[in-house]
């Protein structure tokens, strides 16, 4: 009996994952996803997470980025936020909510008793099978996260997010540059070569 295209594709993905050095390393070190290494590389490059940071992890599930942050932040506070469930992580406060609801902003600011040092986001829209559409939808989340971060970050705050190279890339870049004084782009080694994803590191809000 011939295997279906879906089965072949699934098996191919499993083989690729098995051969992936970052996937293997995440299993050995106990990280919940290979994405953990992307934040590790970003922090090594830009050195923005401190031991006393107040940090918000947007779209946190399954928790790979929160795990990395929790190993560095020993005197600060961390909130992980997602509409999906996430297993507990020591020293990380998880909130299951829609990040763009007004009440969510109030809960975050109350928890931190003021504005934050860092907002990080590895959010991606649910895939549809249409890569172009998925890229647009994820970049829309990125735009909304930039706007959201302006309401909760300190003036000297840092914002880090994933985005995809595509038709709306310039629009995201322009929004970031209108919002922050410093804007950097960086693709970690742990990002797959074939992936169109890159990461945006921004700091210091522009004031009117």
Structure in words:
The protein is of the alpha/beta class and 208 residues long. The protein folds into two domains: 1-30; 35-205, Vaccinia Virus protein VP39 (Rossmann fold, 3-Layer(aba) Sandwich), CATH 3.40.50. It has seven helices and seven strands. The protein has helices at 5-19, 21-29, 36-46, 64-72, 102-112, 131-152, 169-179; strands at 54-58, 77-82, 93-96, 116-121, 153-164, 180-186, 197-205. It has a seven-stranded mixed beta sheet, sandwiched between helices. Helix 4 links the parallel strand 1 (54-58) and strand 2 (77-82). The longest helix is centred in the last third of the chain and has 22 residues, at 131-152.
Structural topology:
Blueprint: H1 5-19, H2 21-29, H3 36-46, E1 54-58, H4 64-72, E2 77-82, E3 93-96, H5 102-112, E4 116-121, H6 131-152, E5 153-164, H7 169-179, E6 180-186, E7 197-205
Parallel strand pairs: 1-2, 1-4, 2-3, 4-5
Antiparallel strand pairs: 5-7, 6-7
Dominant shape: globular
Give the percentage of residues in beta strands. Answer: 15-25%
How would you state the average pLDDT, rounded? 86
Task: Give the N-to-C terminal Cα separation.
Answer: 67 Å
Labels describing this entry:
single chain; 208 residues; alpha/beta; Rossmann fold; 2 domains; seven-stranded mixed beta sheet; 7 helices; 7 strands; globular
Summed up, what is this model?
The chain has 208 residues and is of the alpha/beta class. It has helices at residues 5-19, 21-29, 36-46, 64-72, 102-112, 131-152, 169-179; strands spanning 54-58, 77-82, 93-96, 116-121, 153-164, 180-186, 197-205. The protein starts with a helix and ends with a strand.
